[in-house]
Amino acid sequence: MIYLSVFSFPSESMEINYITEIKKTCYNSFYPFNFLSFKSFERIDFKPITILYGSNGSGKSTALNIIAEKLKLKRDSNFNKTNFYSDYINMCKVSIEEDIPKNSRIITSDDVFDYMLNIRNINDGIDNKREDIFNDYLESKYSDFKMNSLKDYEKLKKVNTCRSKTQSKYVRENLMGNVREYSNGESAFRYFIEKIEENGLYILDEPENSLSPKRQIELVKFIEDSAHYLGCQFIISTHSPFLLSMTRAKIYDLDENPVYIKKWTELENVREYYKFFKKHEDEF
């Protein structure tokens, strides 16, 4: 599915005209002006999966944030904007094939990190509760409790329960319904699964962060299936060879000036991996 078909950034001449007027002020930085235009990066034509590849500082995250702001996509974490951001966004142009679904969103590394941090905080609470339940189990199991009246019936049931069950089973049963503990990689992967729904436009900024190679491969399959079967469109920034290898993905190389489209096997980062493993091929 293609919702967003074309996105146009301001041309270099448009930026020069704008900055010429603004230079009467005291500003010495006009970001995001004078950034993408230096690479003659003025237009993106999208496929169901479009990837912006480049090293740190190449502008791929800047481009994604600009697109997300122009389309007013949902996001969980705020990002820093300069005084010129709104003017720059207003100068951008879009071509839409289908209405952008309301569930569309941008997902950044900050979103995933905050989610993992929240899960960790929840699990810290669970760990504390687990310790309390454990102490309660030991106290009940090995107490010299004697029932003196019906008021002690609930206490008696608890003592008998503790004496009839192992510690681990008792603790597990009393923690049922709480969030289970996941590794950072599992939590990061779950975040994408929870946020990406059918029929949506999703912008993913370096989704490989916090994901192991195995999890990255699983995310690749999930993205490909979502684009092919579930009516989703993806715009992704990455330098992960696993994500870059996605079937029929259109890749813009922002390390080139001017920016142009490449096959994933032509990208410098992928070529370095290839040379490294070829060098050590006999060791496998």
Give a brief description.
By secondary structure, the protein is of the alpha/beta class.
Write out key terms for the chains shown.
2 domains; 284 residues; Rossmann fold; alpha/beta; 3-stranded antiparallel beta sheet; 6-stranded mixed beta sheet
Structural class by sheet pairing and helices: alpha/beta
Shape: elongated
Distance between the termini: 40 Å
Please report the first level of CATH classification, the CATH class of the largest domain.
Answer: Alpha Beta
Number of domains: 2
Query: How do the helices and strands follow one another from N- to C-terminus?
Result: EHEEHHEEHHHHEHEHEEH
Can you summarize the main beta sheet?
6 strands, mixed
Give the beta-strand count.
9
Radius of gyration, CA atoms, in whole angstroms:
27 Å
Mean pLDDT: 84
Residues in β-strands, percent: 5-15%
CATH names the topology of the largest domain as Rossmann fold
Q: Which residues sit in consecutive blocks of at least 5 with pLDDT less than 50?
A: 176-181
Question: What would CATH call the architecture of the largest domain?
Answer: 3-Layer(aba) Sandwich
| Separate helix tally | 10
Widest β-sheet, arrangement of strands? 5-6-7-3-8-9
Helical content (DSSP H or I, runs of 4+): 40-55%
